[in-house]
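protien #1 (seq + structre)
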Amino acid sequence: MRHFVLLLIVLMSGAFAGEPAKMWSGFERLDFNVDGRTCLLIIPKTPAEGKPWIWRTEFFGHEPQGDIALLQKGFHVAYMDLQNMYGAPVAMGHMEAFHAHLVSKHGLSARTTLEGFSRGGLFAFNFAAKNPEKVACIYVDAPVCDFKSWPGGKGKGKGSAGDWKNCLKAYGLTEEQALAYKLNPVDNLEPLAKAKIPILSVCGDIDDVVPVAENSGLVEERYKKLGGEMTLIVKPNNGHHPHSLKDPAQIVNFVVKHNTLAANAAKP
């Protein structure tokens, strides 16, 4: 009877806390749902003080060397499946629910690092503009910073006709309205600058999918004019792929530094 009661307690606690579905790169992985979306959380073996975390907004597991290095330093790694939403307002509500869940249910830091690979840049920048108080810093990698550039293909990039159609649908815009839209990251940097959110962007100099000049290059120019702090690393002879850096030390150091500063600033 005693063993049955203990088993029942374990099963009940798992139902509320989320059971470890599997391991990921040697770390415990929790799979669960928030706001009707599939989510996951990777748990470090020894959480760092204050439980800092990095939030991969798209393409979880792709070029994961930075995430793995941060797990080794005690960061949690989080992901919510928001595919085919392109950082649209509808996605922001889901993201806010996910953030609230991780902070209240898992005790993670109120300020996260947003990690936006490719189209994930739209999610990262748009969430930060709407919720600057919830962001310690932003790390983006070959990020889309203007949907007119990708998937629209209205500049020098290739674009994607299918994604452009889906993007317009996600935002609820006609093409004419989309071309006049003023809340793309390149146009909406002032909330980030006022909150003094540091940005790191890693790009390839010959990216013909998400051209640097139309995306991170334009963000850097405008953000610095607003007084914002941004570091742009441009990899020579590198296209849209591969993402990240073979040695992620610069990425990891940036994330650790600015989470530490954010945590210290929050102390009474």
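ok now protien #2
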Amino acid sequence: MAEKLEARYRGGLASRKVEYGEHDDPMEVCFDRGWTDGLPVTPPTDERVLRMLKGTSRRPDEVIGRIPPNLIECTVEKVAINAVLAGCRPEYMPVLLAALEAALEPVFTLHGVLATTYFSSPILIVNGPIAKKIGMNWGLNALGQGNRANATLGRALNLIVRNVGGGRPGEADRATLGAPSKFTLCFAEDESDPGWEPLSVARGFPRGVSTVTLFQGHGVEAFVDQKSRTPEALTRSIAMSLVKIGHPKLVQSARAVLVLSPEHYAIYREGGWDRKRIERALYEATIRPGKELVAGADGVGEGVPASRADEMVPKFHDDALMVVRAGGSAGLFSAILPGWLAGRKREELQPVTKEVRA
């Protein structure tokens, strides 16, 4: 009722209002106007948008940035409209605003992620107290369906790119096949073990600060090892899956996120391995002889130049692997989220982490 009264007597929304007929279905109007990702959306009425704006202290007319591909200015109000469309709650707004700011950093290369023929899209990883506050999932089925915050936050960011920036499939979005992560892929890290260094801390933020990290990738690729019981054996096993990203003979062109399940993590914890040791060991375990990777070897055209045949060639740059903890307590399964194959110049394409502010 408060928002109804505000909309009736105070107005306050700057965005153009779309009228529809008395007998029209507002959800079908959203489909007809191309405001959806193919799934039903919540029609953004004045009342719903005003309620969404109460989730942040930032002014509705504050410009967050220009959204590619059309480089259209996006205000906090426009963010709120798309948050309504996606099904967000008002308390999600600070996370969504931080995610959008991260996406607009030049090194995230949002235009490239959108326009590539590859599978990639933004992947959101949330750390800190905000994850629990808004009810995010980092446990059972954390990468799947069933949690409103996980599902709608990633969806809202993709809808902003579509509806504000004009990034529609078949137009600027040129993905050959795409991926389900283009709908949404957002989850929180499991920070229940005080001995584990969260991703946010590894990326330079104090423990206890809420952040969102954006990664250019897709998912999810399953990793199964139910028999290795030492950190060394498990590392070699995971490396066998990591080297296949894109193609086994493609090197130093992609990053990757390893989502480590509790049972796999327990093997590392019991062996005394911390984040840095795991990430370094995985990097070293994916270094291979160049003679196996050269173009034409084994009759396969893909590969590195013949000049690298005598080298030991890393699969990744030495900062390209990020480990995140999530998942249910049972199951010796982890997941790999492969990155966009455009990272040969790693300083030009990087994950971005932003603090979540009210």
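The longest strand covers residues 121-127.
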